[in-house]
Amino acid sequence: MLIFEKGQKGRRMTILPECDVPVRLPEEDCRRKKNMHLPQVSENDISRHYTEAAKMAYGVNDGFYPLGSCTMKYNPKINEDMASLPGFANIHPLQPEHTVQGCMEVLKTAENYLCEITGMDRMTFQPAAGAHGEFVGLLLIKAYHESRGDGKRTKIIVPDSAHGTNPASASMVGYSVISIPSSRDGGVDLEELKKAVGEDTAGLMLTNPNTLGLFDRNILEITKIVHEAGGLAYYDGANLNAVMGMVRPGDMGFDVVHLNLHKTFSTPHGGGGPGSGPVGCKNLLAGFLPNNLVEEENGYTFKSPAQSIGQVKNFYGNFLIVVRAMTYLFMLGKEGIPEASKHAVLNANYMMAKLKDGYDMAYPGPCMHEFVMSLARLKKETGVSAMDIAKGLLDHDIHPPTMYFPLIVSEALMAEPTETESKETLDHVISVLLDLYETAGSHPEILHLAPVHTPVTRLDEVKAARNLMLKYDFADKENHNDDTEY
């Protein structure tokens, strides 16, 4: 039940004292034409409503959350403690520089650390999310080519195993997208890449390890092919958690990279934000970075590159997210960063090895941080799909893996356990998955009905997609507030 349906006319809660100064309303043409529909509820009603709603949500603090390519790792509470310190939380972005030197030091220190991890030379924290970072990185590539008078480079090459945001970002920047197929081993097909590159190639977008959970052993050859054609190499940092501290994108030959602080560096993930997708680059692109880079000059000061692409977000990015990420870096240190990636890879390979005798693996191991199962055979033999198995997991309070992605794998389930999960948790999830596999063979009808123990049971997802209900309809409701002024 929605909060609008719990209201009773005349019921209210008093939080603020009655206004004791004259009320000044906006000009008539700036006012709402109709009063707001606000539910009339008591403080007790609203507290219980949102407490109940919170209990129905599922997050990384509730249980196993193995979304592939999302790296849903635990967010240490010390990150929140540091971000809530008054010297960080209570500043204003328009304060004079000399009053926020400590905050500017955070930005510069985080830049130095992340540049060291990625092998880049400079970094901006303005982008608000990973996809925003992709957009900014491509703008840098475009600005680079345009600065050299090379306007014929209009195409971005994207492997067929890429994240869906890659071709979307390239299109937004004005590039045409050339998709190239994967080879039999799951990597980039070198011969197809050689055919695709040319004088019109602006760059290549690639994540390594890729969405199949595989590290491309030909990565140096791949970036060499692109560079020899005059293009630049863009690294999608979505899967950096598998290799951070072990190998650097800059050493693989990449010129620009975006990071997902909410994935790799343990800041809050989902819920609408705030996110952070900083973009790092080599020196050849540094002159095009967005405004307001922190420089050390008699303390710290903000400066803008001479050929900057301009502002891509207000002020300096989501600063408190950077504080959280830097806390994580401080806590792990030089030894802990590669240790985390090793455990992420270990956990994924452990799950894969335990499940492979039942579930078909799209590509045999070893994998990196994630692995992809294909349930095509299971569906053909039993009628139980990847969707059915995913729904079955919900009845065991386990969030499903990513479904039906990457698109090149039929009936795909992509699982990423992350390094923060214990062996006991992994063993429990493995046991549940194997039980569901057995159920698919013996009683498939059970999984066709799943979930049955959740607040909402199996939904008609096709109907939901075709008949969207995106707003509450007040037309026939008794308790709406058309006659109430606020």
UniProtKB/TrEMBL annotation:
GO terms for MF: glycine binding; glycine dehydrogenase (decarboxylating) activity; pyridoxal phosphate binding
UniProt key word Iron: no
Modified residues (N6-(pyridoxal phosphate)lysine): 263
Pfam families: GcvP2_C
InterPro entries tied to this protein: GcvPB, GDC-P_C, GDC_P, PyrdxlP-dep_Trfase, PyrdxlP-dep_Trfase_major, PyrdxlP-dep_Trfase_small
Catalytic reaction list: N(6)-[(R)-lipoyl]-L-lysyl-[glycine-cleavage complex H protein] + glycine + H(+) = N(6)-[(R)-S(8)-aminomethyldihydrolipoyl]-L-lysyl-[glycine-cleavage complex H protein] + CO2
Protein's GO biological process: glycine decarboxylation via glycine cleavage system
Domain Glycine dehydrogenase C-terminal: 340-437
UniProt keywords, alphabetically: Oxidoreductase, Pyridoxal phosphate
GO cellular component labels: cytosol; glycine cleavage complex
EC number: 1.4.4.2
Gene3D superfamilies in the record: 6.20.440.10, Aspartate Aminotransferase, domain 1, Type I PLP-dependent aspartate aminotransferase-like (Major domain)
Cofactors (names): pyridoxal 5'-phosphate
Membrane spanning residue stretches: none
Alphabetized PANTHER family for the sequence: GLYCINE DEHYDROGENASE (DECARBOXYLATING), MITOCHONDRIAL, GLYCINE DEHYDROGENASE, DECARBOXYLATING
Function: The glycine cleavage system catalyzes the degradation of glycine. The P protein binds the alpha-amino group of glycine through its pyridoxal phosphate cofactor; CO(2) is released and the remaining methylamine moiety is then transferred to the lipoamide cofactor of the H protein.
Quaternary structure (record): The glycine cleavage system is composed of four proteins: P, T, L and H. In this organism, the P 'protein' is a heterodimer of two subunits.
Family listed: Belongs to the GcvP family. C-terminal subunit subfamily.
This protein's name: Probable glycine dehydrogenase (decarboxylating) subunit 2
Native species: Lacrimispora saccharolytica (strain ATCC 35040 / DSM 2544 / NRCC 2533 / WM1) (Clostridium saccharolyticum)
Gene symbol of the encoding locus: gcvPB
